[in-house]
Structure formats: C-alpha cells, structure tokens
Task: inverse folding
RNA sequence: CGGGGCGUAGCGCAGCCUGGUUAGCGCGUCCGGCUGGGGGCCGGGAGGUCGUGAGUUCGAAUCUCACCGCCCCGACCA
C-alpha cells in the first residue's frame, strides 16, 4: 500500500504555535502529528497515531519477550479498591458519578485493579506472573505543560509482576529493567536508568529512565566517566571542599547586625559561603520541630529531607521559630537548640559559622559533635561543580524527561487487598509485586527532543510514520507522476512503508513538508534527473545524499 | 494555589497607551492564469460575536470590573 499524500490529512504548519516552548511541542504540531484540544489534552492526528502505534509495538514485543501477557483493564474504577490501599485521597484523581449517584474514579494507574485480579492466584505454582496493558490514564494535573511532556490524559503501558519471594521479585524487576533498556534502544532514545524516589507509590525501590532533552521536568546528574548517574532529587555528589578559616577551641559570639542571609553573612565576616551553615526549621506531622542543617553554599533537597526524617514536613512558621529558638530566621543555629538536629554529611568535619539563636548574632567555630550532637544524613542538592561519588570525576547536569519508571512495591497493594497465595510450605503469604510504566506519548516527545534539526523532526527508522518519503516533483507532468508512482510501488512491494507526495504543490513546499514530517529516507523523482533515468536520494539526517539510477532505488533504500 | 504574560479570520501578528465611518497585514484557503528542484508570481473572491458578561460614554477591539480560556515560572508531580 502506498500512502498518497494528496488524499491524507497531514496538516503541516509553516509557523509554530505561539504558545509552544518545547522543541517537541513545536515540531510535533508543525509536522501535523498532534493537535491540542484543551490544556493537557491532545489528539494524535493520523501520522502521530502511526508513530504512537510503532512505539507501542516495540514495547509489546519486548514485554512479550520476557513473558508479559497483554490484557486490558477498564478505566472506570470503583473507589473501594483505592479506599483499601489508602490512595483514594490523592488529589490528582478524577472522580465522577453514574446516574444513580454511585461513585467512580479514573485511576492514575492500575495497581489496585490488577491486584484485584491477582486475588485469583492461589498457589506458588502459578508464580511468577507478568501482566500488562496499554490503557488511558487520566490525571487531574495542576499544571499540564510542554505539549506531550505533561498531560492530563494519556495512554500508558503499565505492567505488573507478581512473585512469591524477594528473589523472584528481583528477577522480575531486572527482566523488566533490561526490557526497558532494549525498548529505548530500539527507539533510538538515549536514556539512563537511575535510582528514583517512589513518591506516592508506596514502593521500596524504584528506577527512573531519564532521557536527556532540551526540555523536561527532571534533572539528570551524570558522571563524565559514566561511573554514576542519578536524578537530581536524590543524586549523591561530592561538594567542593569548604574554605574554612582557622579553628577555634570553642564557639565565639560575633555581632552581625542586620545580617539575615548567607550572602550577607559571608560578606560581613569576609569568609567563603562554604564556611557558614544554613539552618532550616521544619515541623514533622507529629508536631515535632526539627532543625535541618546544610552548608551555607548548599541547597536543602526536600526529597532527601523527606527520606531522612522520614516523612512529610513543612517549614516552621515565624511564630514557631520564635518560640523554639528565641530568635528569628537568619539567626538560627544548632547550638543550644533542644530538639533534633539533622545535619548534612558535608558538616561532619570542620568548624562553621552558625546562627546564635539571638537576633543579630552568630557563632564562629561551631563544630558538630563538640558543640551539638546532630544526626547526619545526605541532605544537600547536588550542584554544578560537584564531583562524582564513585570516581571523583566531573558531574554533568542535564534536563531530562522521565520516560519510564519501574517499582518494586512489595506487598503494599496485596496486603490491603488480600491478594495472597499458598506457598510450598503450606503458608498463606502476600503476593510481592512490581509495576512497570512507560508513556508512549512521552517517549515520542523525547525522541523528537533528541532527533531534530532546524527544519523538523528526524525520525529513527524504527518509529517513523513512513520509512520512505517519495517526492514527485511533477509540476503537472503526468509522466513524472507515473514514474514516482512506479518507484513507490517497487518500494512498497518490497515491504517498505511509503509516503508518496503526489500533491500538486511546488517543490519548495514538498521539501519543507518532507523535512517537517521527517521520514528517514527520501526519494526525489523529478524531470531534471529523470532524463538520465535517475532519481535523487537522501537521508533525512543528512548523512547521505546522491543520485541513483531509477532501477537501483530499492537497492539504495535497502542499504541505507 | 501564588507570580508573570497572552486572548483580534484557519495560523502568525498589528491596531489598544491617546475611544470616533465599512477593523488591518502576512501566510493559508477558494476561482482564473503564469510557473515548476527549497514555502514562486499576477488578478479576483470568501472568511472576524475583536474570549464572555457587566459597566463608563453620544460612541468601546481600545477605558473599568468580574469571569473564562491558554502559555511560562513556582508549588505540585508514578
């Protein structure tokens, strides 16, 4: 089958929509791949859907290859399942009612539903299981953005494994991890699998797949030598050494009138910011006030603080600070504070300037372990200039898109939903689960972010909507169109997906549209070369360009 | 939810500050013609509740208020 462009709907645009920012957003819209219906709601136009289906097919093949069984679970979900796991209160859940007033939710993902089905697993003899589906997810995102990067409704491939023990879980998890690597490799997507935070998934352990990109919501921290990679939120990194003045035998009060910022403090005392400490009082859910302490030139990572406490906390109010410290923000410090102090590892050794818990005063020479007893934890957010924790090499920071996330969630869902099995020893045990998600739409956006030039998308062959784009520069000449048709037929018969631009348009427009659509291979049939019985051919990425005899086109395409 | 920006023809924009006949431009689109290897040219045409509502005014795209929508930053976030 030849796809004749004169009959297809590929609404390309000369200009990008004014409100587009991300490259993938601009190019997918300009290329006629997607259209916005409302904030975070997108239609995949015909060629966009072709691309999505190709990505899905690659995922499907790799999931099947590790024993995945495709199924389909409904979107509309009874809230009872989510009530049981305690996830019903998540604000991103869309809720609705039927005509009788019965409530339903649109699930963010399908752990509850799949675990509901896993209750039919009776025996260890049935384990392990790996199930997956491609299904619509709806999320009441507070802020959709960046075209396909963050949307309110999207199709996700979510897979779920069930195992009898930790060994099995590890095996399933690693099988999926390797499958994901193969999937992204086949999509020509550069990704890094990094340890991630589990968030609301209740998981014990999770891995993010981050694709470096011009726009994205994550920051990938990667060692120049390839020894380490992590998401900025939880990445470990070695800060540059602090520039410390000479030590003191005991803390020494120094008056610092009106100084309430680290910059101001360092300047006032004539020291480096790294020689100061920054105190952030937070309140835990139980009401306890904890002082988090990082080096003055560092930023506190909220994710790491969450892990260290552990649990959610909020910044203390001015009143709470006044009561606990007897001083206001800007003059706070660990010395003399009665509550718990959690200090960043960077403060383990050396003496730092800290707030004196008296407005307008600080302490010089404050030393952990001597002047106060903190609990140490990694609290700092990595920054440019840090070194790799493995090899000491330079760290590279890049914005990235999270294209996949895999979790080991243990019995988080199976316990409340009572999904158990009878083990070999006759004991009833909770199933151990993992979940594995990929958003094909995000993958599409990430591929475009990584494969484009100033003229449009440069699709990898594996997911291009059409592998070969034949341009008929006929200018109304019937014989050129006939030849182009014959070339397209030859390729099509050989198994290639061919898009034939048989429209009555000028050459410039056809070239521009072909660049936007981005098929990896292009064959140009025009009067100019036809006189010599030849056509021009070129790869979209510019790596090859030339002229071949018309009977050699199939050979060129096959070799390219 | 906080901060900022925008809303005028299918797309991209001007006009608004300083209110005044039929609201403009480019592209696209339709008809005719010339063209035909990187968005070509000539001629003719169609297409707009100026986001919505209220108000000020003799008169509102333009000034005021409210609301809605969209984008960006933050909060948030499998």
Result:
């Amino acid at each position: 089958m030849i796809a004749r462009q004169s009959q297809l709907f590929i609404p390309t645009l000369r200009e990008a929509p004014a409100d587009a920012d991300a490259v993938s957003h601009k190019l997918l819209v300009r290329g006629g791949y997607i259209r916005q219906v409302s904030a975070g709601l997108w239609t995949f136009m015909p060629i966009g859907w072709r691309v999505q289906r190709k990505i899905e097919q690659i995922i499907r093949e790799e999931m099947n290859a590790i024993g995945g069984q495709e199924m389909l679970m409904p979107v509309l979900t009874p809230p009872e399942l989510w009530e049981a796991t305690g996830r019903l209160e998540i604000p991103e859940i869309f809720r609705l009612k039927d005509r009788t007033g019965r409530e339903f939710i649109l699930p963010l993902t399908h752990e509850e539903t799949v675990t509901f089905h896993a209750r039919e697993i009776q025996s260890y003899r049935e384990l392990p299981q790996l199930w997956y589906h491609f299904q619509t997810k709806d999320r009441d995102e507070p802020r959709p953005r960046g075209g396909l990067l963050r949307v309110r409704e999207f199709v996700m491939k979510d897979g779920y494994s069930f195992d009898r023990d930790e060994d099995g879980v590890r095996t399933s998890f690693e099988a999926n991890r390797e499958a994901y690597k193969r999937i992204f490799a086949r999509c020509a997507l550069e990704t890094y699998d990094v340890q991630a935070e589990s968030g609301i998934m209740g998981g014990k352990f999770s891995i993010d797949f981050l694709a470096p990109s011009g726009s994205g919501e994550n920051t990938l921290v990667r060692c120049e030598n390839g020894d380490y990679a992590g998401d900025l939120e939880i990445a470990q990194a070695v800060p540059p050494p602090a520039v410390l003045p000479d030590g003191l035998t005991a803390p020494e009060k120094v008056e610092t009138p009106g100084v309430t910022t680290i910059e101001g403090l360092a300047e006032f005392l004539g020291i480096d910011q790294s020689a100061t400490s920054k105190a952030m009082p937070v309140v835990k859910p139980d009401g306890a006030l904890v002082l988090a302490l990082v080096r003055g030139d560092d930023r506190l990572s909220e994710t790491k603080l969450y892990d260290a406490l552990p649990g959610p906390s909020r910044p203390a109010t001015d009143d709470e600070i006044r009561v606990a410290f007897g001083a206001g923000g800007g003059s706070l410090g660990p010395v003399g504070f009665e509550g718990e102090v959690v200090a960043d590892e960077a403060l383990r050794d050396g003496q730092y300037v800290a707030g004196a818990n008296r407005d307008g005063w600080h302490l010089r020479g404050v030393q952990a372990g001597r002047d106060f007893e903190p609990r140490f934890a990694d609290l700092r957010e990595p920054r440019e200039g840090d070194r790799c924790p493995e090899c000491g090499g330079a760290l590279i920071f890049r914005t990235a898109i999270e294209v996949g996330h895999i979790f080991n969630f243990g019995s988080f869902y199976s316990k409340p939903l009572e999904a158990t099995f009878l083990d070999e020893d006759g004991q009833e045990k909770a199933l151990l689960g993992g979940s594995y998600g990929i958003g094909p739409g995000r993958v599409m956006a990430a591929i475009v972010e990584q494969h484009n030039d100033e003229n449009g998308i440069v699709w990898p062959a594996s997911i291009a909507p059409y592998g070969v784009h034949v341009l008929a520069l006929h200018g109304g000449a019937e014989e050129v169109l006939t030849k182009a048709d014959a070339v397209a037929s030859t390729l099509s018969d050989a198994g290639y997906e061919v898009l034939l631009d048989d429209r009555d348009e000028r050459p410039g427009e056809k070239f521009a549209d072909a660049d936007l659509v981005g098929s990896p291979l292009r064959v140009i049939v025009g009067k100019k070369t036809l006189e010599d019985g030849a056509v021009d051919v070129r790869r979209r990425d510019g790596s090859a360009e030339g002229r071949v005899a018309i009977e050699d086109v199939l050979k060129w395409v096959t070799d390219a």
